[in-house]
Automatic annotation (TrEMBL):
SMART domains: AAA. It comes from the Bacteria. It is a peripheral membrane protein. Residues 1-250 form the ABC transporter domain. Gene3D superfamilies: P-loop containing nucleotide triphosphate hydrolases. Belongs to the ABC transporter superfamily. The keyword ATP-binding applies. The lineage of its organism: Bacteria, Pseudomonadati, Pseudomonadota, Alphaproteobacteria, Hyphomicrobiales. Keywords: ATP-binding, Nucleotide-binding, Transport. It comes from Afifella marina DSM 2698. GO terms for cellular component: plasma membrane. PANTHER family: D,D-DIPEPTIDE TRANSPORT ATP-BINDING PROTEIN DDPF-RELATED, TRANSPORT ATP-BINDING PROTEIN. This is Oligopeptide transport system ATP-binding protein.
Length: 331
């Protein structure tokens, strides 16, 4: 049971390696500087566990997180503080994650104080700068207000301002736009893209919504029951998915793009998701896979390069056969 995340900076490598987490098994992610990586899958697949473990909210049962070549487990309190500061999280519900009794100013000033980002005398100017950076202006007018005085989208902007306040290297956004109105979602996604570029961040964007992935992230990792079953460049995964589970997700998603629609020959996901605490042997997807063969129930498939992506499936060509047949039938 291990979780590996590699994050490259010009100064070194962030890698969270060999991190055993309940319900997460053998997950390895690579995050390049400036990259927006999507982590997708149904609820309960382990996405949030990974996020929470990386930012230190969930203790791994064993294993290591390696940051810039050093084991976080061996960090001094000061080094650990730096690490915590470097990896920030934005949650799904911006109301839940903001203290209703704290003003915008004290919410955003808190990480600035904790991590001593600016001298005391510059706190106010820095908070104003951060509010402007997330598109809340005139910032001065917002400083003394409380969370309930804002809309959902504005509250999420406040959460994002708080997350970038400590000048992190990585932002992990867990369903950060799921609770927002559709009309607001695009604005917040645009903000994430802008900040990722401007601040030279890398982001892991956790979502079950494939349209979010497509509009925002250049790479995607698809999770099923605690494992990554397919990963690669978003365009490639969306237009030529190799894993039956990815195909099923795409099939179920109302994505309008004709390129994607063409590749949406799949099947509807049926059957219950097995318990992550007691996953099926062999390929964990075999209980729901329409092209499963006897080998699938006993041998777990490893991720391997297939058609420009990496997929963990013994029989991806089995799917292409089905596809040929259905094309022939259509003709
Ligand atoms: Fe389906 Fe077998 Fe591939 Fe798993 S390994 S996705 S059960 S064909
Ligand atoms: Mg979740």
């Amino acid at each position: 049971h291990e979780l590996k995340v590699h994050y490259e900076t010009s100064g070194g490598l962030f890698s969270a390696g060999s991190l055993p987490v309940r319900a997460v098994d053998g997950v390895s992610l690579e995050l390049k500087r400036g990259e927006l990586l999507a982590l997708v899958g149904e609820s309960g697949c382990g996405k949030s566990t990974i996020a929470r473990t990386l930012v230190g909210l969930t203790e791994p049962t064993a294993g290591d997180i390696i940051y810039a070549g050093q084991n976080v487990g061996n960090f001094s309190p000061q080094e650990r503080q730096n690490f915590r500061r470097s990896v920030q999280m934005v949650f799904q519900d911006p109301f839940d994650s903001l203290n209703p009794r704290k003003t915008v100013f004290s919410t955003i000033a808190q990480p600035l104080r904790i991590h001593k980002i600016v001298p005391r005398a510059e706190l106010k100017a820095e908070v104003i700068r951060l509010l402007n950076a997330v598109g809340l202006s005139p910032a001065e007018a917002y400083l003394g207000r409380y969370p309930h005085q804002f809309s959902g989208g504005q509250r999420q902007r406040i959460c994002i301002a708080r997350a970038i306040a400590s000048r992190p290297k990585i932002i992990i956004a867990d369903e950060a736009v799921s609770a927002l109105d559709v009309s607001i979602r695009a604005q917040i996604l645009t903000l994430f893209r802008k900040l990722t570029q401007e601040l030279d961040l890398a982001s892991i964007f956790i979502t079950h919504d494939l349209s979010v992935v497509r509009s925002l992230c250049e790479s995607v990792a698809v999770m099923y029951l605690g494992q990554v079953v397919e990963r690669g460049p978003t365009e490639r995964v969306f237009t030529r998915p190799q894993h039956p589970y990815t195909r099923a997700l795409l099939q179920a998603s109302p994505i309008a793009d004709p390129d994607v629609a063409r590749s949406r020959r799949g099947f509807l996901l049926e059957g219950d998701v097995p318990s992550p605490a007691n996953p099926p042997a062999g390929c964990r997807f075999h209980t729901r896979c329409p092209i499963a063969q006897p080998k699938c129930a006993s041998e777990p498939p490893a991720l391997r390069s297939i058609e420009g992506v990496e997929a963990a499936c013994h029989f991806p060509e089995g799917w292409r056969q089905t596809e040929k047949v259905s094309r022939a039938e259509e003709a």
